[in-house]
Amino acid sequence: MSNSDTKYSLFYEILAGVWVRNGLQIKGQAMTYIQANFCNSMVDMDIYWLQICAAHLPPNDFVRMCIDTFGVREWLSMTPMSASQAAEQDAMVEGLLTFLAILVSSRTNLGNDEVLQSRVEVATLLAAGDKTHSQLLELMPERSGNAHTRNFEAVLSELSVYRAPPKGSESLEQGLFVPKPVVWERYYDPLHVLRRAVHRRDFHASMDRFTAYVAEKRKAEDGSSNATTNTGNLWPPLRPAVPPPDVELSGDPRQICASGVLQAAILAVLHRGVRRRDLCCGGVAAPPDHVLALAVYLLDAAADLQRDRSRADSSVCVLGGSGLSRRGTAGVPMLCVFDTDEITTNACTLIAHVPPVYYSEFDYPEPYYSDSDPEWENNDMGQHAGPGPHIKPHSLQRGSTALAVPQPMQMVRNNSVPDDQSDAGGDAPELRALEGGESGALVVQDMGLAVQDRDLVVQNVGATSADMQSDAGASSVEGGQDMTLALTGSDTGPRYGYDVSELEWGVGPRALPAPLDPTLDGQPDTPPETDARFPLEAPEAQSTHECLSDVIGDHIPINESLISLLLKLHSQLSGRLDSFSLDEPPPSTQEPIGDGPHFIGILLHKLAALDSRCAETIQLVRRTMWPNQRERQAEQRARERREKEERTRRARERQAQVMRDFARKQQQFLSAVRQLEGEDMEWDEEMVARDYDCVICNTTAPAALHDPIGLVVLLQSTSVLGHRRRAGSSEGVLALSESERARLAAHQYSTAAAHHYRLHDDLHQHFDQESWVLSVSVGWEGGVMSQSCGHHVHLRCLRAYLRSLTASQRPPNLNVERGEFLCPLCRQLANSVLPLAPEPIQPPLRPPPQAAYTQLARDVTDMLERDISTPVKSQLSEAMGKAMTDMTAMAGGKLKQRYGSSPAAIFTFVASLVRTNLECELVQRNNTLVVQPTPRYKPREECIVPLMSVAGTHARALVVAGASLGVASTWRSLVPDALDAADEGGGSGAAVPAPTASRPVPLLLRDPTALLLHVLLLAPDETPHLDIQHFTCIVRTMYALTYYQVVNQLCALGRLAPAQHVRAEGRSRGLIEAAQLLLTALAGEHLLDDDATTTSANQQFDINKAEEEVQELILPYLRIVSLIRAHVYGGELPHITSSNEEFPTLLRYLQLADEDGILVASDGLPPNAGVAARAWARQLATAATGGQLAIGRVVRSLHVVWTGPTLLKLPREYDRLFTYYHERVCLQCGAVPKEASVCLLCGTLVCLKQPCCRQHQVAEASQHAMECGGGTGIFLVVTSTYIIVIRGRRACLWGSLYLDDYDEEDRDLKRGKPLYLSEDRAELLQAQWLAHRFDHTKRTWVDIAPDRRRPLRPLTDCVLACSIALLGLAAPAHRRNLNSD
């Protein structure tokens, strides 16, 4: 037994930090002792053996051995000690109580069958936290024959509910098992959790979860009896200790609770707990609630055991009746104060005082020593070096005897406490000595309750050390004569000497403890009022000794019993005096759920039911400590209720007065308004500048030239738009065979990027470089996307903030040298600032209301042909140049390679920046403005206006620097009918951006959205401040160009070829006339002849279907323009509920059509649009000479309906993907990669980390991410199922798309479970890719390679030239250089 007991005590010593000098390895040994893999053969076997010993050994001997093994005899004997020693001993006392409670309650190997034990183990794991299936299976204790998993699935389904990962969550949660209510109600055992918990936090987590369950249950009960009884902190729901099934064979380990030694130890625990809560004890904390809960639990088990024994033995009856025997002890060591094992008798026994006990290294040698044993700070303790625990008893004379005093006599001292010092009247309860000097006996005065049969109760008050070590703790003294303690009884006698501290209760004078006869220990006869051993005031806190256990003379005052301590603890935890009463019924529920007063009340009710002496003692102690307290509390509650009602009445009166004052002021205001109704009130319309809040200096101010403020943004290179596919085409599927691989390669030919590259190649083949570059938009691959958190900073504040980031304490994974920083407020990643231009001094030109289209077109022409003044040098212009430099450096290398660095290419790039952001926003809206379900990531709208301002500033700088962009001449060609005859004649032939162009691109082949952005950037004096009527005029003009381009494309495809033979009438008249106009104008050029499409004479022409096709091809233009209008002019986008309503709703929103009812595409055309269209057709016919095939391809593919970009569709079963890819060779190095990774954008197999495929120290995966994803790569690692996301020079582990049946990941395929695709995670990955959210949602980025990407040098030089022009420093020579480029 000693071996098992020692191991368990060593375990708690390690947890208490006694062996801290042995390092962390010693904690590992303690964890191994209770680990799931070894607990069955280690801690469980030790507990079982100790339970057998506890069931068959004498309880007092067993408890003494446990106390000595744990080394807490001094603590339990109330011996004073230093604060550090007390803290260590507190932890060991907690371990001792936990150990004894486990011995009493555990039935792991002492009654539980296999199924029941499995339920207990699963409930213990679930109580500590929701866990995955693999975690539960791994943490189940291993038993012989795999019994721990035999019933695992059935028990798990019985005790838990499976909770699938939430849909739409970013945290990539896994499937968890959540405990059912039956776990908390029947199987949750905190002691078993402590027994299995490797970390103490698991126990605290289980208690927090139990508390949350109880709170939710009480809330659901809504006012039931259990919902309001307990309001304090819940105590652990310790399960009642029941006898083993085969108690005759195995014995009952509960018998250790019927030990006087254990009950005395619990009295010491309760005493320290009660006193430490009231006094400051040199930094020594009071025992925590769960220690007190363990003490109360053991007392409750003792009461249950006595009740069971009383029922089993019919010859034993419970004491009762009107008489009561009062017991008391003094001068006996704490652990020997009880000479009986009956809890009812010991609970009523008063302990006056005990002597201090110290260990002796001779009689109590330690079998082991800690290298961190505390050193005694009190040198006086070293004088007790004798054998055995040093006790200085109050011994009586050997030849003297004590006689029983008759009941009518009350032996009290003349200087006893007067009656007025007690609230209840009469002397305080005291332990008195007989007056006779020759008789040294102590007499306990009865409190008016007669002793039945008038028997004498004899106790030993002078026990020697030999008596202490005896098995029964005998109360007799060696020798022939006894020293007795006489009990006297009288109907009006004094009461027990319970210590009622004035600091603790705050009512009435303090009742003095019982003084002993000074002749017993050689002290002079001192009155109790001045006796140094019993001071009237509480001792002050000391820094080295516990003030609660100060030695007074040669003894430690206690003056308490178990019942008095329980009542005091009940009152302290309840927060009110006299909180317990036997008149209140015990809780009706049998569930062990409640706070401290709940469990203490149950115990007191049990004791009162077992023995009437306990009930009378409870009432007596209450009357002694809290006389008439219930009446006082009732009066206090009535007074508080009256005060509350008075306060409520006054509050209502004040509220009524406030409402009357408000009504009076309202009437006065209305009267004043009526007086001013007839007066003319003129309001000056002034543009109110918007104020911005700087998140660094916390100041609010408008944007200014010399103190600019900017929007914090993150610039990213993107190729999302290039991965869009034609509508109606099949979605991309990851290849799992050679035929599928060939089909996937062909499928990449249909992406938007490939389509625009083919279109640009055809234009480059037949037209001038400057002309075709200004006719398109770029950035489908390698464009720049800007995102913002919505916060603003002053540029001067940002510079100081960036200087602070260059210190060594910079955030991890932050490349400050490349301009990266975290937003000072929300901590999102950013790398640039878009400066905000101030409001213009002069408002934009405002035409008269309802101005004609021709007048508006002339106004736009004047805006484009005006001379742009040189910008003024300011800090704002410098910030504009810095922002454009950042965006140019972020662009992909393909832009420079394909489009060069001429002013035309710069202007196209600047305009394409705005379009790229608009198109990306449209992608996040699922390529439609129809109301959609709430997306995972709502698009932010803060960047468009500042981006247009920066782009417009640089576009005007290009014009100032001398670049010929031809925007004005292009606009004149778009509206020839709106100009005079001379301009109209010149404009019909001026279809080129530059006058020197020999092969200009016809208007019918140019991108209308690109032309729209060109005009919007250059027309206003300060972009984007343009009057709404002029904006509508520009939109209407470009709509006409889009309309005729679409009609021309459908004619070339043969869809509208039969229209030339159809009569134009009805709602379709405009479409038929447009088709006939183009077919007639281009009839001789054969551009609209489609060899693949033949129309038979009997084929019926469906004009409605043709109208739908026209509207479908025009919708992308309307969506982009609607977004621009919403951003620039504010307001909400129209609420569109169905796709059929999208086209007419957007026409009305853009003010292109005002008619109600059904609208057709021709309703949005400007007046005399056919005149301009005929001129455009002549341009196309002229340009088609010599290049009909190439220009025909451009005409047929100019407008395409795109679907949103998606990642490649993955197979549902992971084994199919693994089987095909894990042995495939890399196409670049020809070897099988160790970590084969598949790109989810195009399906290419790359080497992830291997150096074999590195080029210029750049890994193959990083290079592929630049080429395929514009710097963003998404790779599936075949050997680990995980997704690797690469963003530039950083990479992060995203998570796994494949989960098992319980929605768990199987990283590196270690568990070998079948894995299936998680659709929710696949959608989350795609949503983060489309919204460019990887930098914001992932924080665990690592650097993978030096950043070899360089900005476009020629492009950057030209941007710097634009910045020089912004500063007003452009020289004529520099302008000539720009033109020569």
Automatic annotation (TrEMBL):
Key word Metal-binding present: yes
Species annotation: Leptosia nina
Pathway in which this enzyme or protein is active: Protein modification; protein ubiquitination
GO cellular component: cytoplasm; ubiquitin ligase complex
Gene Ontology biological process terms, A to Z: protein ubiquitination; ubiquitin-dependent protein catabolic process via the N-end rule pathway
Basic and acidic residues composition bias: residue spans: 629-648
Positions of the UniProt region annotated as Disordered: 218-243, 412-432, 509-533, 628-654
GO molecular function, one term: zinc ion binding
Function (record text): Ubiquitin ligase protein which is a component of the N-end rule pathway. Recognizes and binds to proteins bearing specific N-terminal residues that are destabilizing according to the N-end rule, leading to their ubiquitination and subsequent degradation.
Family indicated by similarity: Belongs to the E3 ubiquitin-protein ligase UBR1-like family.
Protein name: E3 ubiquitin-protein ligase
E.C. number(s) listed in UniProt: 2.3.2.27
Chemical reaction(s) catalysed: S-ubiquitinyl-[E2 ubiquitin-conjugating enzyme]-L-cysteine + [acceptor protein]-L-lysine = [E2 ubiquitin-conjugating enzyme]-L-cysteine + N(6)-ubiquitinyl-[acceptor protein]-L-lysine
Residues of the E3 ubiquitin-protein ligase UBR1-like winged-helix domain: 119-219
Alphabetic keyword roster: Metal-binding, Transferase, Ubl conjugation pathway, Zinc, Zinc-finger
Bias-annotated ranges (Polar residues): 223-233
Domain E3 ubiquitin-protein ligase UBR-like C-terminal: 905-1330
